[in-house]
Write a structure and sequence with these properties.
Largest sheet: none
CATH class: Mainly Alpha
Structural class: mainly alpha
Distance between the termini: 39 Å
Number of strands: 0
Order of helices and strands: HHHHHHHHHHHHHHHHHH
Number of domains: 1
CATH superfamily: MFS general substrate transporter like domains
Length: 403
C-alpha cells in the first residue's frame, strides 16, 4: 500500500486550507486601519503617511501583479504560497520592531509582494485539488477571502491593540502566517497534477505574452477593476460617513465590519449558483445593477431630503452583499478563460493587477466628487458610472466563445 499523502492525514479539505492561507495573507492588508490611531500616537503618523501605508499593498499589485503571476506559475503554485507566507511572517515580525514610519512603510511594501505570492496561485491550486463539479462552489468561497479578512481584522485588531498594543498585533499576525505555512506544508499535496518541476525563467515571457494576447483575461481584469474600485470606496469611507453622522467609534467599527462581511454571502451564493448552471453574465449583470441602484439609494439626495440613515445603511448592506456575486464569478471566469493550464496564476495576476488599480483609483475619485460638492450626496455618480461600465464589459464577456 502506498504511503498516505499529506491530504490523507488531515480531516480538513486541502483546498479549504489553501483558501485559509489566502485569508491569512489578506489579514495583513486589513491589519492597518484599526492600528492607525495607535500608530499616530506612537510614531507620529500623519494622515498623508497613513494614506500611503494603506495604498502601498495595492501599489505592489497594481504595478507588478501580472509579473508575480508569471513568477507563481514558474515557481509552482504551492511553493509560491509558502514563499509568500514566509515573506509576510518576516516582514510583519520586523514591522513590530519598527521605530519610525519610513521603516514601517518599506516593510509594508514588502508585505504587498508577499501577499501577491500567496493569493495569486490560489485559484489554480484549488482547481488542481477539487473535482470539476466542486470548482465553482470552492471559488465562490475563495471570492469571499478579502471581505472576510477585512471584517476579521476590523473586529480583532482593536481588541488586540487595546490589550497589548499595535506591535503585538503585528507579531501575532506574523505568528499566524508562520503557522499557516507549516500547515500548508503538511496538509496540501505537492503539485497534485502537474508534477513538481519548475518552469525555466526563459519560459516566463512566453506565458506573459500568451496571457496578454487573449481577450478574456483583459475583459475579466477590467471588470474586476470597476467592481473593486466602487466597493472599496463605499466601504472605505463608511467610517467617515458614520462619524459625521455622530456615531461612536465602536458603533462605526461594527457597522463597517458588518458591511464588509455581508459581501461574503454574495460570494458564496455565486459559487452555488454557478454550480447549479446559472450563467456567469447573468450573475454579473445582477451584481452591477444592484450596486448601481443601491449606491443611489444610499447617497443621493440633499441632507434634508435624503432617506433616513437606517434605510441608507440597509442600501449599503445590499450594495455589498449582492455585489459579492461579482468577484467569485470573475474568479471562476479567470480560471475558465486562462489561455492554458500553465497560465492560471498569470491570468489571476493580471486580474489582481487591475483589481488593485481599481482599489487605488476608486476611493480618490469618490473623495474628489465629495470634496467638489461639499458632501456625499453626489458620490453615487462615480459608483453608478463604474456599474454602467461594468455592465458594458459584461456584455463583451457574454459574446466570448464558451470554453
Amino acid at each position: 500500500m502506498a504511503a498516505p499523502t499529506p491530504a490523507a492525514r488531515t480531516a480538513i479539505d486541502p483546498a479549504l486550507i489553501v483558501i485559509l492561507a489566502g485569508v491569512c495573507a489578506a489579514l495583513h492588508v486589513g491589519k492597518l486601519p484599526p492600528a492607525i490611531p495607535a500608530l499616530q500616537q506612537a510614531l507620529g503618523l500623519t494622515l498623508l503617511q497613513a494614506g500611503f501605508l494603506l495604498s502601498l499593498v495595492q501599489l505592489a499589485g497594481m504595478s507588478v501583479g501580472v509579473v508575480f503571476g508569471v513568477l507563481a506559475d514558474g515557481l509552482g503554485l504551492r511553493r509560491s504560497m509558502l514563499c509568500g507566507l514566509l515573506v509576510l511572517a518576516a516582514a510583519s515580525a520586523l514591522g513590530g520592531w519598527a521605530r519610525d514610519v519610513p521603516v514601517l512603510m518599506w516593510l509594508r511594501a514588502v508585505e504587498g509582494f508577499g501577499f501577491l505570492l500567496v493569493v495569486l496561485p490560489v485559484p489554480g491550486l484549488v482547481r488542481q485539488l477539487v473535482a470539476r463539479e466542486r470548482l465553482s462552489a470552492m471559488l465562490g468561497i475563495w471570492g469571499a477571502y478579502m471581505p472576510f479578512a477585512t471584517a476579521l481584522a476590523l473586529l480583532l485588531g482593536p481588541l488586540c491593540i487595546a490589550a497589548a498594543g499595535w506591535r503585538a498585533w503585528w507579531w501575532w499576525l506574523a505568528g499566524i502566517s508562520l503557522a499557516m505555512a507549516l500547515w500548508l506544508v503538511r496538509a496540501v499535496p505537492r503539485a497534485p497534477e502537474r508534477g513538481a518541476t519548475l518552469a525555466l525563467p526563459t519560459q516566463w515571457p512566453a506565458r506573459l505574452r500568451q496571457t496578454l494576447a487573449a481577450r478574456g483575461p483583459w475583459l475579466v481584469a477590467m471588470t474586476f477593476a470597476v467592481y473593486s474600485g466602487q466597493w472599496l470606496a463605499v466601504i472605505g469611507f463608511l467610517p467617515v460617513i458614520a462619524a459625521q453622522a455622530g456615531l461612536s467609534g465602536a458603533a462605526t467599527g461594527g457597522l463597517t465590519a458588518l458591511a464588509a462581511a455581508v459581501n461574503i454571502a454574495g460570494n458564496v451564493a455565486s459559487g452555488r449558483l454557478l454550480q447549479r448552471g446559472f450563467a456567469a453574465p447573468l450573475l454579473l449583470n445582477i451584481g452591477f445593477s444592484v450596486m448601481g441602484l443601491a449606491a443611489i439609494a444610499a447617497f443621493a439626495g440633499e441632507p434634508g431630503a435624503a432617506a433616513p440613515p437606517a434605510l441608507r445603511y440597509l442600501a449599503v448592506l445590499l450594495f455589498s452583499m449582492v455585489g459579492g456575486l461579482i468577484p467569485a464569478t470573475l474568479f471562476a471566469l479567470a480560471v475558465r478563460l486562462a489561455p492554458s493550464e500553465n497560465t492560471l496564476s498569470t491570468t489571476v495576476g493580471w486580474v489582481q493587477q487591475w483589481s488593485a488599480f481599481g482599489q487605488f483609483a476608486g476611493p480618490p475619485l469618490v473623495a474628489w466628487v465629495a470634496s467638489q460638492v461639499g458632501g456625499w450626496e453626489w458620490t453615487w455618480l462615480a459608483t453608478a458610472a463604474c456599474s454602467a461600465l461594468g455592465l458594458a464589459l459584461v456584455g463583451c464577456i457574454a459574446r466570448l466563445p464558451r470554453r
